[in-house]
Amino acid sequence: MPVEKFDVVVVGTGAGGGTAMKILCEAGLRVCAINSGPRLEPAKDYRLHRQVYDLKYRGFGDPLRLQGKAHQEPYSVEESEYSEGHDLFEHDVAYSNAPGTDWYWKRCKATGGKANFWGRSSARFGDIDFKAADLDSFGENWPVDYAEIAPWFSKAERYMGVASTVQNRPSNPDGDYLPPIPWRCIDYIIQKGAEKIGVPYLPDRCAQLTVAHNGHPACHYCGNCTRGCDVGAFFSPTWFTIPDAEATKNLTLLTSALVRCVLVDENGLAKGVAYVDRATKREVEIYAQVVVLAASCLETAHIMLNSKSPPLAFRHCQLQQTAGSESLRSLVRWSWLWILAAAPGPTHHAG
Amino acid sequence: MGGQNIERRQILRFIALASVAGSYPGFSKWCFACVPDHVTSTISGPAQTKLEPFMPLFFPPPKYRMLEHLTEMIIPADDTPGAKEAGVAEFIDFMVANRVPITANRDVRSTDDALELGNEAQNRFLLGLDWMNARCKSEFGRGFMDCLPEQQQSLLEELAYKAKFKPTSESGREFFRLLRDYTVVGYYTTRIGLESLGYPGLRVVWASMPGCNHLKDPEHIHLHEQADSPAAAPANARQKGAVCARREI
User: Fold this and answer.
1) Is residue A205 within 8 Å of B192, Cβ to Cβ?
2) B-chain residues within 8 Å CB-CB of A59?
3) Model confidence, pTM
4) Total beta-carbon pairs less than 8 A apart between chain A and chain B
5) What pLDDT, on the 0 to 100 scale, is given for residue A80?
6) Most exposed among A34, A120, B89, B156, judged by the fewest C-beta atoms under 10 Å?
7) How far from chain centre, in Å, is Cα B21?
8) Count helices and strands in chain A by DSSP H and E runs
9) Is B142 on the interface with A (CB under 8 A)?
10) What share of chain B is helix, strand, coil (3-state, %, to 5)?
């Protein structure tokens, strides 16, 4: 029986993975996308329009809901009684911290990942970011500059729908924007005060739809964005990139599959991935020409560290621990990291 | 699902399903929906599916009545309904019985943490109510619920207001803080409480975001200089792709 080989396997279906699968599927490639957790279904998993008094524990949640789970700590804000019980966040795989440290790792394993709940702040990098090392001698410059990337920012903004104003500040370059979100009372109050001390107070670049956009409805301001949007009025993989990829019929989406490592052939080239099926607990191998790792900042590094002999080209990569940022920056940054990771080269042992 | 135009009426359908109030058996005042959105509830209208008297889950009935009275003293009915009508005592009884940490002086990082805080709350409520009764017995010769209203009021004020603190009532003050916090949380997470605040979030569908629309309000009128504001007159910028170019910073 011939073993199926895909053109590309994409690990992770969040901000980076969702975009990768859409672009690659639309280019005609056969893509296998692998997601750690279950398929997220807004109609079933989100309960946004409930008021707090509609919830059994008034939003505080059942104190026993994580009993017996490997990872005991609740995830703040996004994982709440509004959507509890639908297994969206990682509690079956625990992690530990080095002694004396307390790293808090937010892991959403459902399709779309943390980008289902992200803050939607979508500022462009400027050369102040791309060429930061020139300014402050820390780290490395990007191998690209703003002029080169600007058209790609425009493309992304036109796809996502980002609401803001023209501000003429090189540190936060202007983009292609929808009408801004109207200011509340507090915005006017702060702006007046900030003006007195020379601090600009300006609308953020918010990936929220103030008008209907490309078939997605305008926001109706229910206020529950960070619990997930049940109408798709802001950019998320669940409402935008994953359906686009599926519409091409080139996508195979595997869920509840936790990728363990990249499989490498005798020439040191990636040939696929090995994942553990969460249901059967058995390991399965998937083969492809190209492997895209977009499994979130730390998990991508984890997968690479698990991948052995011949070791991956670690020293060409910058495994920057930039966890926490939920903006377009991660998308741009991670698209570079996976390009670099796929290249073979002189190695040092990755342990 | 993704990419389709969600009509307003579909949004309204979500809301209708989401806010059908079910009744939780055993509550006399607290209506809430436990059914998932996609299952249409057959229950409509106010609480009681049973005609039995309400039995608290945790507090013995005399202590429960004391809790009801105390919460009503903290948030009395005036031009808006009070804690009693909002079912705050039921809320406290339910949360304490189920060991749901409401107020915590440390993060809840595990089930054990949550249960430990929940157990602590149980003890602190029982001991606190006992303390109040003991204090009333020694000062007024009667339990709290048998005291005159002025006596109850004077004790509560001694525990609540800094100017009236006495060195001997330290544990009473701690209990009052706990009780007040649960009362406030229990009240302002009800429809009654949120309506009393005029909370705009009770409305979940807005055709457009009103923003600051207090143009005639004396407190806000000086804030609006339409020509200068970066996000001014959003209603004028409804065309797709329009931006509001204003001040250069």
Assistant:
1) no
2) 189
3) 0.79
4) 199
5) 82
6) B156
7) 17
8) 9, 6
9) no
10) 50, 0, 50
Q: Are A334 and A113 within 8 A, CB to CB?
A: no
Is the pLDDT at A317 greater than 60? The verdict is: no
Task: Compute and round to an integer the Cα radius of gyration of chain A.
Answer: 21
List of chain A residues whose C-beta atoms are within 8 Å of the C-beta of residue B86: none
HSE (side-chain half, CA atoms, 13 Å) at B204: 20
What's the ipTM?
0.77
- Find residue A234's DSSP bridge partners: A208
Residue B16 touches chain A, beta carbons under 8 Å: no
Contact (CB, 8 A) for B241 and A176: yes
List the one residue out of A269, A302, A327, A289 whose CA is nearest residue A5: A289
From the list B3, B14, B211, the residue facing A184 with the nearest CB is: B211
| Closest chain B residue to the Cα of A166, Cα to Cα | B245
Q: How many helices (H) and strands (E) would you count in chain B?
A: 7, 0
Q: Which of B2, B11, B243 sits opposite A242 (nearest CB)?
A: B2
The distance from CA A268 to its chain's CA centroid, rounded to whole angstroms, is: 28
Tell me: the pLDDT tens digits for A287-315? 999 999 999 999 999 999 999 865 555 44
User: Residue B224 above 50 pLDDT?
Assistant: yes
Contacts of A217 in chain B (CB under 8 A): 5-6, 11
Query: Contact at 8 Å (CB) between B37 and B103?
Result: no
CB distance B32–A185 less than 8 Å? no
Phi then psi for residue B145, to 5 deg, are: -70, -20
> Residue A264: phi, psi to the nearest 5?
-125, 140
Confirm or reject contact between B134 and chain A (CB < 8 A): no
A162 three-class SS: coil
DSSP 8-state secondary structure symbol assigned to residue B31: B
Tens-place pLDDT, residues A122-165: 999 999 999 999 999 999 999 999 999 999 999 999 999 999 99
Answer yes or no: is pLDDT of A250 > 80: yes
Name which of A42, A119, A117 is nearest A86 in CA terms: A42
- CA–CA min distance A345, chain B (Å): 41
**Chain B, 50-79: which have a CB under 8 Å from a chain A CB?**
none
Structure tokens at B90: 């039921």
Q: How far is A214 from chain B (nearest CA, A)?
A: 8
From the list A26, A40, A5, the residue with the least C-alpha distance to A249 is: A26
A303: its two tokens: 């997968």
Nearest by CB to B245, which of A56, A165, A191?
A165
Contacts of B30 in chain A (CB under 8 A): 53
Rounded mean pLDDT of chain B?
76
Helix axes B61-74, B88-97, angle to 10 degrees: 130
Task: Let me know: does A147 contact A167? Beta carbons within 8 Å.
Answer: no
